[in-house]
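Postdoc handover notes: sequence design on the structure in folder B. Input tokens:
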């Protein structure tokens, strides 16, 4: 069901119900690209059944599906058409079009060609675990994940998200595991990795279907190269590729997961896949984060005996929601501090 996962922490204030999410998604159902639209995004039934629900809830987990349709228009084709129109203009007027005219011609050519282009569809699965306050996006491209996050926040009222980050850098941990030949408890190192130098050369060494517990790998690490990808397995049940940005890629469930289970009927396949994914990955993700030193608290730890809450009172008495991205919190604090004025003092001053 899932091949790649980017993991987000959901703000504590958002408590979703199936009906509320369903109603919100219904306002943005997928519509095919119009004749001159290069891209269209919209929600579709996760099961792939026409007119089915837009939200599936299985064992308390919410499953959504975003459909993406784009028109394939190579830049070389647009340039060829622009050159053709520009030549016609030069023949008629005796003058070559300038930069501004060429820009307008490019827009004109794009609008002419878009209706003739082939359309390409893909889909992105979103998995929400409300009890764990986690949201996972099945996309390998950070840019695509950002688009999905923006759409989710716009669609689902009150939703706040920030990327889950580990206390220790994944590259540092992966380097230590490769040097020592020892992975965190429950994990094993498999036979694929990518090492990249941090100097101006940006040299890259890749190993595929190759033993990694060798002196050559350790020498690369000692020379300053850092792991950007490392193949691993969890309890001989799930194999995956961990990246230096804490993405989980190339997810594959191993034979041990399916032992003792009969092959589900066609109409039960979605439920079976969702149950397996939530069960196996729901155990793997926290174990992996723990192996990376735990989750990074970007707001800092509370003093001993205290618990950090999700709100902060700014100098101007504004209550700030801490379940935002760090940049958003910082900007809100700065704005509130400015509004408070130089004469306002904190209670302890």
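Designed sequence:
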């Amino acid at each position: 069901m899932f091949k790649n996962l980017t993991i987000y922490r959901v703000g504590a204030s958002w408590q979703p119900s199936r009906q509320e999410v369903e109603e919100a998604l219904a306002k943005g159902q997928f519509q095919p690209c119009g004749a001159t639209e290069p891209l269209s995004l919209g929600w579709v039934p996760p099961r792939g059944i026409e007119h089915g629900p837009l939200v599936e809830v299985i064992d308390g987990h919410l499953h959504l599906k975003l459909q993406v349709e784009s028109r394939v228009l190579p830049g070389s084709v647009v340039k060829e058409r622009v050159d053709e129109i520009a030549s016609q203009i030069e023949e008629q007027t005796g003058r070559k079009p300038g930069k501004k005219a060429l820009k307008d011609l490019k827009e004109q050519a794009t609008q002419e060609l878009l209706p003739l282009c082939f359309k390409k569809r893909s889909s992105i699965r979103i998995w929400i675990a409300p009890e764990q306050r986690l949201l996972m996006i099945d996309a390998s491209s950070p840019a695509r994940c950002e688009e999905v996050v923006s759409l989710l926040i716009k669609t689902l009222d009150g939703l706040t998200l920030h990327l889950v980050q580990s206390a220790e850098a994944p590259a540092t941990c992966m380097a230590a595991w490769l040097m020592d030949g020892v992975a965190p408890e429950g994990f094993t190192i498999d036979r694929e990795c990518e090492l990249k130098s941090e100097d101006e050369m940006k040299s890259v060494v890749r190993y595929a279907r190759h033993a990694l517990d060798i002196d050559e790998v350790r020498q690369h690490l000692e020379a300053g190269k850092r792991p950007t990808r490392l193949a691993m397995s969890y309890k001989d049940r799930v194999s995956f590729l961990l990246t230096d940005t804490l993405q989980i890629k190339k997810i594959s469930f191993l034979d041990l997961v399916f032992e003792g289970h009969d092959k589900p009927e066609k109409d039960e396949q979605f439920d079976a896949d969702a149950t397996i994914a939530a069960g196996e990955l729901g155990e793997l993700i926290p174990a992996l984060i723990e192996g990376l030193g735990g989750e990074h608290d970007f707001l800092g730890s509370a003093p001993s005996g205290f618990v950090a809450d999700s709100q902060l009172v700014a100098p101007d008495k504004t209550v700030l929601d801490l379940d935002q991205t760090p940049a958003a919190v910082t900007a809100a604090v700065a704005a509130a501090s400015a509004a408070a004025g130089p004469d306002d003092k904190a209670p302890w001053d």
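Context for whoever picks this up: The CA atoms of residues 162 and 325 lie 5 Å apart. Don't rerun without checking with the PI first.
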